[in-house]
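FAQ: What does the model actually see?

It sees only this:
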Amino acid sequence: MEKRVRVNTLKVTFKRGSKEPTDAEMFQFCREQHFKPEEIYSVHKDKELGAIMIKLKNENLMRAAIQALQPGLKDLTTSMHLKDVANVRNGSNVEFTFHRAGSASRLDRFYVSAQFLDKVVEIRTVPVAFSDHSAVVMKFLVDQSALCQRGRGYWKLNSSLLNKDDISCRYVVDFYQLKDREIYTRNRSTWWNTVVKPKTQFFFKNESRIFNCRINSAKSELYAKMYDLAAERRNGADNRNQLQEVKSELMRMELDRLKFYGSRFPQTSMLEGEKLSVFHVSNQMHKGCDGSQFQLRDGDDLITDSKRLKKKIEDFFTGTFQAEDSASLESSAEALRDVSNSLDLQQQQELVRPIDEAELKAVVAGAAKKKSPGPDGISYEFYSVYFEIRIREIGEIDAILAEKFRDSEKIERPFVPWPCGC
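And it is asked to produce this:
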């Protein structure tokens, strides 16, 4: 099979509303990055994306430039030798974005190892817009003559997990300690399921435990003070202002706890103004029992069967975003509106109602329970099966090729230090 020539794109964003860079400034930037004229395919500015698009002919140059310019998620992916498959294989610069009132969220990308990417012939991307979590569903077409591990070569990184610098740095250190284990080179599949997933889950649970211990320790002192003030007040003391100050401080600590968890609410709840998403539909579908199960209206047909409902949801989103020309911001927003309109008025009102104080307290109380929110608001139980879901369902390779993918190839990627020096 003839190898395709890849043209890699480096996107350098500039602040919207600021003065746009001139041609001279763009090429000056290229010179500062030590790009030679023969290494640059093209340079142009994109007003819609608010970015300078620099197309390079050399893959290594692009990776080095991204590492120097894009901190956070880009640094992590390059340091782990992961590549954005949509950009590398399809040569696409489109970043699917989900718009809602007053804000816009970039959909997460899938990243894969270089070894796996070399064996992939084609990747088709299908954006799926969730209200509090986003993804790009991918179909892999793999060279049948290639021997690689089924479903073990691609990675999914949620940028919301990495927006706290101290946590992301500690996680990277923890990740590379896991790579030192002998089981990694012996069997990648076993290493992934028995080491990485449970250790990752434990890491974020431990971060939550440390934070909760710090909050609870401070709160216990305030509670003791509040009880003493309340007892004095029952005996006639005029300490109302002091008592209110203690209560206000306790509430502030609860708000700090919510802020740490991303201020997200129960998975099937929605903030006022948010649009219904397949994420909420799926959660409501699995959560409900036969008597109160979520219903989806298809014309005059009311779908209540869970299997039919799941298939209807998948077909709807897949059909909407399958065509390349329809994978736009407008079609994404329109799709969510269509799903929302398929519900009756009562269901719509229930899904978009404002969050009340009782629910806020329930989220805080749930932090110490099994169904506690994770660092970005999604429950720990979700993370415990998160990568497994991606491997089994979203990154599915055709069943006829399944027997081609074994654990026979075990390539260990070299250790690369974390760029921020952690």
